[in-house]
Specification:
The complex is a heterodimer.
Chain A lengths: L6 H20 L3 H24 L5 E9 L2 E7 L3 H24 L6 H20 L3 H19 L6 H32 L7 H4 L6 H16 L8 H4 L5 H10 L4 H8 L1 H4 L3 H22 L5 H21 L3 H29 L15 H15 L5 H15 L3 H26 L14 H16 L11 H6 L4 H4 L4 H22 L8 H6 L1 H8 L4 H46 L7 H25 L1
Antiparallel strand pairs in A: 1-2
Helix pairs in contact in A: 1-2, 1-4, 2-3, 2-4, 3-4, 3-10, 3-15, 3-19, 4-5, 5-6, 5-10, 6-8, 8-11, 8-13, 10-15, 13-14, 13-18, 14-15, 14-17, 14-18, 15-16, 15-17, 15-19, 16-18, 16-19, 17-18, 17-22, 18-22
Chain B lengths: L3 H17 L9 H22 L8 E9 L4 E7 L1 H19 L8 H20 L3 H22 L4 H29 L7 H9 L5 H18 L8 H8 L2 H26 L1 H6 L1 H20 L4 H22 L2 H32 L10 H4 L1 H14 L6 H16 L1 H25 L16 H19 L2 H17 L5
Antiparallel strand pairs in B: 1-2
Helix pairs in contact in B: 1-2, 1-4, 2-3, 2-4, 3-4, 3-10, 3-14, 3-20, 4-5, 5-6, 6-8, 6-9, 7-10, 8-10, 9-13, 10-14, 12-13, 12-18, 13-14, 13-17, 13-18, 14-16, 14-17, 14-19, 14-20, 16-18, 16-19, 17-18, 17-19
């Protein structure tokens, strides 16, 4: 039953066509159309899983395009990694679309929303089953388009319109890196198929490491890694279920998926993996530190996503292939849950400022309980999902001797536990800080929350020592044997870190204890400002990249008018001036013409005579 | 056999003649007349594609008869993989732009006569295989275009029309010199392009001469493409031309330059062309990046699209520079795609101009809410133009870049920067025109009419279908390009 894999993206695509063409007539039925398509895809993904277990594998549907002598196939990739992604995307996607029916109820562009979401699902699933770089690149841009359309979904808001553009252009900067990597790979090895990566990774040397770094630039754009992370927080202008699906659980994880998919390239040279690990580490720490002071419920989660994606990259970069992909999977569940909880809260209180919330626990019990579970999961409290996968990353960094990166990962884990606890303590507990009238959300929203909460709590077991690292064995990866020994010390350490983070947040935000002496607080004010302003990265980009570039464009246009075009008109003016100069020769006086004629005749005779005499 | 190719050229002439004899008081009949004519031409060209043998590299449907015996000038027409797509493109845009000509209200008779004359010239240029015949059609295009811009254009129409005319004429005069030198160098003297190519491969032109001849032709073609720094006639001509004429200008006339390089420069002066490959690549990247940068600085919608054409034509140049199969296929496909996509883009600018009588992008805003169908068309065409995969623009650019990378990795990498800027200016345009709160001035704009939809929808369908299934077009051109490459000494 493996050979139904190519149908998985097809059903959401049909839903897209139906919703875009008949959206006006279907009205509220658009939601169920998209959900049904997504659910069918999930069932198909289960079949593919079953087929794979009984020995099925990748297959091809024919040639799409030929590059000289190299055919590019419509190939379908079926392996542990792609099946894991198929299951996660279809399962979470279906739940989020059910949730969306409640969340988007009454929106004037309800049908458009579901059309775009279905198009996204189709592209994302296509991306996962692509078996070569070009197919992947096509769907890669496809998910980027859907992201753009959905970020600026409420386009009347200028901020949403701007955020869409920023997301598209920033990720495209990364995409050109990927594109260049594809070109370099093709001309070095004459193949773009993922199946050949293992084989070609031997014998081409460092060129492939350059390819790997270029591919990583693409991955960094999509997965919002430093220095291309700036688009993701702004992307929160989109509807919250979109943030959950695209900007937390699936699309932004595509960068991590890409690195995992092309892992043999990264193994060619330590430099490539080192780059991944360092960029991942910087992103993880940078974003986590910003999240500790941000006051917007969705932006805290957005920075958290950047940070967690950084952690996955770090995991992959230190050689933890299975660790990185495992964290990708668990993160998809708990981060989708957290965003949907945030959406439920926003739906109830109509603000995103956490300091206007407070005391929501008693008013929204389902949302609050699931929010709490999600928080514990991401904070890494055992035995919830985040604990197991984070532990794997820490172990991988430690065992492979990356001391500094290990430290970064530990610090990030601590900060994660701290800012997430801060978030829920401020939002859910204490006294209401303003006059809001919260109410629990409808069942279409709370049921997906509960299902996701169960998974966020339990899904980690598939990769735990208790299940003999079944997940790691399934997605493959050389290091699973090394990591499969349960590391008791590491587990204790990571538990202590997360409890410390939660404890610190409890002291500050519940007990209102001034942890630091007043004198030190004022000295930390500068740091606080720096974090609040996100290290001024947006401002720096604007001042040193965007504005100078736009200025250069305006100057180019001036040159075009003033120099290039003026030269052309100059030629015309020159000809005009020349004829103006020659014009007086036409005097209209017969005497002048006769004089010229006679002089001319004399010269002619003389010349001819001279010629005649010579011979 | 029925002379299919001649009928493509003479049908518009016949139509023009018929309109010429319409009485002045029945001037209103000239539009239906022109529509029937261009519609028939489109049907014939569709039939042509249907009957075209996709596996044959050589000329098909050839027609040959002696025209001026004393000079060995022939009336020689033929179609192959290089021209078939462009002939269809011309017929399609000719019909759609004719539909969109309903905005023309005065001097209808003259307009449609000139319009059909232009059609005949454009089709003739793509079909002629004799250099004299080619030159005649090349110049025939010029005259109606001059009047169409100069009479029905915008405020600075005279300036733009004269500039266009003189600029192109300057190029073609040099080309004429090239034609004559080529004619007198070969023995027996011939204007036949195929014979010239055969003579060239037997060493009729020494490398030095090839370079000069190449340059003579190239100048004419570079002005038409247009290649930096010969591009400044384009923004002026576009901004002043009425919408349907802009469509033909960008969609067809710019292709005549690239077509000339494929048809004349490469096969007849192969060594000359090869020695300028680096120049092609450098000019290509300048076109791409400089064109995109200047487009970014525009506030006039139409001018932005005009500069985007400059940028896109850079990919065609890059494809030429590659001197390999991937790049040539990319360049030719990009020419076809650009015609379809930018044609649609100019129609869309026209739709807006008809309602607003301005093209300043800042005068709009929030049109997504007011005119959703227009927003759909504008968004999808912009995405196609910025090279989104799944739409045809991507495939052409991808192949051009892929082909050029082999010989010019650094230049290709630099052109990728153009892709980022292109995304920037198109999305910035969308942000200003379609997104944000609705500009109160736009409250009464009507969405695209059924007629406007009829002009836009076929183009959108084509670039979506070709985007998904590029082999549809690539299969037509591949055998011929393969043969061309073997002339150049490149195997596949």
């Amino acid at each position: 039953m493996v050979n139904v894999a190519h149908l998985i993206p097809l059903f959401p695509f049909l839903a897209f066509l139906i919703n875009i063409a008949f959206g006006g007539k279907l009205k509220n039925a658009c939601g169920p159309v998209s959900v049904a398509a997504s659910a069918i895809s999930f069932v198909l993904a289960l079949f593919v899983y079953q087929g794979f277990r009984s020995g099925g594998g990748s297959y091809s549907l024919g040639t799409w395009l030929s590059l000289g002598d190299t055919p590019l196939n419509f190939g379908v990739m079926v392996d542990g990694l792609s099946i894991m992604m198929l299951l996660v995307v279809t399962f979470i996607g279906t739940l989020i679309q059910i949730y969306s029916i409640g969340y988007m109820q009454g929106d004037p562009r309800f049908s458009r929303y579901f059309a775009y979401i279905s198009l996204f699902m189709a592209s994302m699933l296509g991306l996962v089953i692509a078996d070569n770089f070009v197919m992947l690149y096509i769907f890669w841009e496809g998910v980027g388009l859907c992201s753009y359309l959905l970020i600026s979904f409420w386009f009347e808001k200028p901020a949403a319109a701007r955020a869409g553009l920023k997301a598209f252009v920033t990720t495209r900067i990364g995409d050109t890196g990927l594109f260049l990597g594809i070109l370099l790979l093709f001309f070095t090895t004459k193949t773009l198929s993922f199946h050949d990566l293992q084989q070609i990774s031997e014998g081409h040397g460092t060129v492939l490491a350059i390819v790997a770094v270029l591919v990583f630039i693409g991955a960094a754009g999509k997965s919002a890694q430093f220095p291309l992370h700036v688009w993701l927080p702004d992307a929160m202008e989109g509807p919250t279920p979109v943030s959950a699906l695209i900007h937390a659980a699936t699309m932004v994880a595509a960068g991590v998926y890409l690195v995992a998919r092309t892992y043999p390239l990264f193994l060619v040279d330590p430099f490539a993996l080192q780059t991944v690990a360092v960029i991942g580490g910087i992103s993880a720490l940078l974003a986590a530190s910003i999240a500790t002071v941000n006051n917007d419920i969705k932006r805290v989660l957005a920075y958290s996503t950047v940070s967690q994606l950084g952690l996955m990259m770090l995991g992959l970069g230190v050689g933890g292939y299975a660790a990185g992909t495992f964290h990708l999977m668990t993160h998809a569940f708990f981060k989708a849950l957290l965003f949907l909880c945030a959406g439920s809260v926003i739906h109830a209180v109509h603000t995103q400022d956490i300091w206007k919330m407070g005391g929501l626990f008693s008013k929204m019990r389902v949302t609050a309980t699931t929010f709490l579970i999600g928080t514990l999961a991401i904070a890494g409290v055992p035995p919830l999902a985040g604990f197991w996968s984070k532990d794997e990353i820490l172990s991988a960094a430690y065992q492979n001797g990356h001391t500094v990166l290990f430290g970064v990962a530990v610090l990030t884990s601590f900060l994660t536990a701290f800012y997430m606890s801060r978030l829920i303590f401020v939002v859910l507990f204490g006294k209401p800080r303003s006059n809001l009238h919260p109410h629990e959300s409808p069942a279409t929203m709370t049921v997906p929350l509960m299902i996701l909460a169960v998974f966020a709590a339990l899904v980690g077991f598939v990769g735990s020592p208790l299940a003999h690292h079944a997940f790691q064995g399934f997605v493959g990866g050389g290091e699973s044997s090394a990591a499969s020994q349960a590391n008791g010390g590491m587990m204790i350490l990571s538990t202590v870190i997360s409890l410390a983070g939660i404890g610190l947040a409890y002291l500050i935000y519940i007990l209102n204890v001034n942890v630091l002496p007043a004198g030190m607080l004022s000295r930390l004010n500068g740091l606080h400002q720096l974090l609040l302003n996100k290290y001024y990265i947006d401002e720096i980009y604007d001042a040193f990249l965007v504005q100078p570039f736009l200025g250069l464009c305006r100057i180019s246009y001036k040159i075009d008018l003033g120099v290039v075009d003026d030269l052309v008109n100059g030629v015309a003016r020159f000809v005009a001036a020349l004829s103006e100069f020659l014009r007086p020769m036409q005097t209209g006086l017969v005497q002048n013409y006769l004089l010229v004629q006679i002089v001319g005749l004399i010269i002619l005779i003389l010349t001819l005579g001279k010629l005649c005499f010579r011979y | 056999m029925f002379p299919v190719l001649s009928s493509l050229i003479f049908l518009p002439l016949l139509g023009a003649l018929a309109i010429l004899f319409l009485p002045r008081e029945r001037e209103d009949l000239s539009r239906p007349c022109a529509l029937i004519t261009t519609g028939t031409v489109l049907a014939v060209s569709a039939a042509l594609i249907f009957g075209f043998d996709r596996t044959a590299p050589g000329m098909q449907f050839a027609e040959r008869s002696l025209w001026i015996p004393q000079l060995n000038v022939w009336y020689f027409l033929g179609v192959d993989g290089i021209s078939i797509g462009l002939v269809f493109l011309t017929a399609l845009l000719g019909f759609l732009a004719c539909l969109a000509s309903n905005e023309i209200r005065d001097r209808l008779k003259e307009y449609y006569v000139l319009y059909l004359l232009l059609m005949a010239g454009m089709l003739g240029t793509f079909l002629a295989l004799d250099l004299v015949l080619f030159y005649v059609f090349w110049e025939v295009v010029l005259i109606p275009m001059y009047f169409l811009i100069g009479i029905w254009g915008g405020p600075r129409k005279e300036y733009a029309a004269i500039k266009f005319f003189l600029y192109t004429l300057a190029g073609s005069v040099v080309m004429l010199v090239g034609i004559l030198i080529a004619y007198f160098t070969t023995k027996p003297h011939t204007f036949n392009m195929l014979e010239l190519a055969a003579a060239a491969s037997n060493g009729a032109f020494d490398p030095q001469l090839q370079m000069w001849l190449f340059l003579a032709f190239y100048l004419a073609f570079a002005i038409k493409i247009p290649v930096f720094p010969f591009h400044t006639w384009l923004p002026d001509a576009h901004v002043e031309a009425p919408t349907p004429i802009s469509v033909l200008l960008a969609g067809v006339l710019l292709k005549m330059g690239g077509y000339g390089i494929f048809r004349i420069c490469l096969p007849i002066f192969p060594q000359g062309s090869a020695s300028f490959a680096t120049a092609f690549a450098v000019l290509g990247v300048i076109n791409i990046v400089y064109g995109a940068g200047v487009a970014m600085a525009q506030s006039d919608f139409k001018k932005m699209i005009a500069y985007s054409s400059v940028s896109h034509m850079g990919f065609v140049m890059l494809g030429f520079a590659s001197m390999n199969s991937i790049g040539f296929n990319g360049a030719l496909l990009e020419m076809f795609n650009h015609g379809i996509i930018t044609g649609a883009m100019f129609l869309l600018v026209g739709v807006l101009y008809k309602r607003a009588h301005t093209r300043e992008m800042d005068k709009f805003g929030g049109l997504s809410a007011q005119t959703p169908l227009y927003a759909f068309f504008l968004t999808i065409c912009s995405l196609a133009s910025l090279g989104l995969p799944g739409l045809s623009g991507f495939v052409g650019e991808f192949l051009s870049l892929m082909g050029a990378y082999q010989g010019f990795p650094v230049i290709t990498a630099l052109s990728l920067f153009g892709l980022i800027v292109t995304a920037g200016y198109f999305l910035f345009m969308i942000q200003r025109v379609l997104l944000g709160p609705l500009n109160p001035d736009c409250r009464y704009y009507k969405d695209v009419s059924p007629l406007e939809t009829l002009t836009l929808a076929p183009l959108v369908i084509i670039f979506v279908v070709v985007g998904f299934w590029p082999a549809l077009v690539l299969d037509l051109q591949k055998p011929t390009l393969g043969m061309l490459l073997s002339l150049l000494g490149v195997t596949s």
